[in-house]
Amino acid sequence: MTAEMADGSDRSPQDTAALIQEMDHRIKNHLQLLASYARLASQRRGLTACELAADLADKLSAIAGAHDALHRSAGLRAAPALPFLSTLIAAFPQAPHPILVTCDAELMLPAGELAPIGMIVTEAVANALKHAFPGNMPGCVRVSLVESPEGLQLTVQDNGVGLAELEDARISGQRLIEALGRRLGGRSWTRNLPEGGAEVGLICPRRTDSQP
């Protein structure tokens, strides 16, 4: 006796039960991740209820994107990084500045990395769009996710005004990014770029397991 899954494959009842259990485990972990994020986000100075709600909606979208990416890849273990990033960027349809993505088409992200990386990307991109280009000055945001000798390297760069004049506003999300980076076992940073603008970065070791 077999059970037919949504991806069209036939699995035994035992395999189906194991997949359901893993999905349940992952959903619980993602809800815990969102709850931790909400507690940190609520501590931001000057944050209004409307801004907090919009921020959490962005992070929910990132988690939903992670689940969708895994579903499209017909599994729970890993998913292609580039389509996932493209889905995240599509959540900023009214962005007044272009958002450019650099990522190896062959790069796969383990399931446990998708949601935290997605939340870091949405946080950094939203901060850049909000603070980097006062007066609607021209510029762009660049998102890069590549493999480096140290592991997986994520950077979100802009060519705006940098951190000096808007330091408190621009780094208000850094605690959130640092917490997400620690969850991945990595290190994060925020810095001014020599050529102008700012960069949020993260390096974390590659993972072969599927646990968040």
Condensed summary:
With 212 residues, this protein is α+β, with helices and mostly antiparallel strands. Helices cover 46% and strands 21% of the residues. The chain has a five-stranded mixed sheet with strand order 4-6-7-9-8, with helices on one face. It has a two-stranded antiparallel ribbon with strand order 1-2.
Domain unit count:
1
Envelope shape: globular
The share of residues in helices is 40-55%
So what's the oligomer here? single chain
List strands and helices in order, with pairings.
Elements: E1 3-4, E2 10-11, H1 13-41, H2 49-72, E3 78-80, H3 81-89, E4 99-103, E5 108-110, H4 111-131, E6 141-148, E7 151-158, H5 167-170, H6 174-183, E8 187-192, E9 198-204
Parallel strand pairs: 4-6
Antiparallel strand pairs: 1-2, 3-5, 6-7, 7-9, 8-9
Helix pairs in contact: 1-2, 2-3, 2-4, 3-4, 4-6
Question: What does the model show?
Answer:
It is built from six helices and nine strands, in the order E-E-H-H-E-H-E-E-H-E-E-H-H-E-E. By secondary structure, the chain is an alpha+beta fold. The strands form three sheets. The chain has a five-stranded mixed β-sheet, with helices on one face. Strands 1-2 form a two-stranded antiparallel sheet. A hairpin with a 5-residue loop joins strand 8 and strand 9 (198-204). The longest helix has 29 residues, at 13-41. The protein is globular and about 60 Å long. Residues 1-8 have low confidence and may be disordered.
